[in-house]
Amino acid sequence: MSEIKIDLNNLNKSNWKTYRFDEIAKNISERVDPNNTDLKIYIGLEHIDSESLHIKRQGTPDDVNGQKLKFYKNDIIFGRRRAYQRKAGIATWDGFCSAHALVLRANPEVIDPELFPFFMHSDLFMNRAIDISVGSLSPTINWGTLKHQEFMIPPKDQYEKLAHLLWTAEGSIENLRQTHVELCQYKECLNKKHFEAYRKSPNRVGMYTSKVGSGVTPKGGSKVYQESGVQFIRSQNVLLGSFDMSDVAYISEEIHEKMSSSKVLNNDVLLNITGASIGRSAIYKSGESANVNQHVCILRTIEEELDPLFLSEFINSAFGQKQIPIITSWR
């Protein structure tokens, strides 16, 4: 096929048309009783990954009770509850799904079914879905509201090109994801082989660190958090080998100085020591001033004796994770 060129930054939308959502897609509302069906595949919202077109997990009828929704191959299963999680996956078989989803089927007279999954994952659609959700604890979309929402759709000569371009890009992304998975598996094998040698080692981390200790919650708790200032790292910010600072808290320089014993320095290994995320660790390399709360432990190595990267990799390895009860007793 000849190369398709589309300037996504300067799309000509002069001939795009506006349609209601119920003109773009059909809501499939066939009901299924899990205790009385020949269908073998159940898809719950927990089986759909955020921001992914592909459904890679599944359940069985034995997993659930109560009325569910039937879907057919190539339908879109869209999580109408907590739409901010951006869950919309393509069914690759017939089955049934959670009633907290909508089963949607593209209208080929309006939009190419190949383009429809990308439309569903667009910021335009997802942001609208979030805006029309109702409820505070579990915001949910009602079909009666969604069907009246209007969106601009390109003509056939454009949406076919867009679909081809986007699926080509999606194929490249999936290949990269698979390569990443395989590299992680290879890395884990290497780590297991290497770290196995330390199973009976008499060495303890305290022999190679200048500091092992956690922080505290500042007086006043979250009420003293600020919009900016010194980063206050909590357990949700520490992942396996990296940090998620999207919701990092901030404290004042004054509080930071009062909590001087838990100041974070570059190359400190931060380790979660309580809760569901216990055992996750990462090396701090930001260079910005930071502090930690009582759920995060600082491991400051004597770098001539122990490389902090080695320590963090050890802790995050499968072998290291089995040692977490011992590691958290080193304090």
Characterise the protein shown here:
The protein is α+β, with helices and mostly antiparallel strands and 331 residues long. It has two domains: 15-168, Adenine-n6-DNA-methyltransferase TaqI, Chain A, domain 2 (Alpha-Beta Complex); 202-327, DNA methylase specificity domains (Adenine-n6-DNA-methyltransferase TaqI, Chain A, domain 2, Alpha-Beta Complex), CATH 3.90.220. Helices cover 26% and strands 20% of the residues. It contains nine helices and 18 strands. A hairpin with an 8-residue loop joins strand 15 and strand 16. It is elongated, with a radius of gyration of 25 Å.
What's the structural blueprint in terms of helices and strands?
Layout: E1 17-20, H1 21-24, E2 25-28, E3 31-32, E4 42-43, E5 68-71, E6 76-79, E7 88-90, E8 95-97, E9 101-106, H2 116-120, H3 123-131, H4 143-146, E10 150-153, H5 156-195, E11 209-214, E12 230-233, E13 249-251, H6 253-258, E14 263-264, E15 269-272, E16 281-283, E17 290-292, E18 296-301, H7 308-316, H8 318-322, H9 324-327
Parallel strand pairs: 4-8, 12-17
Antiparallel strand pairs: 1-10, 2-9, 3-5, 5-8, 6-7, 6-9, 11-18, 12-13, 14-17, 15-16, 15-18
Domain Type I restriction modification DNA specificity: 14-171
GO molecular function: DNA binding
Protein name: EcoKI restriction-modification system protein HsdS
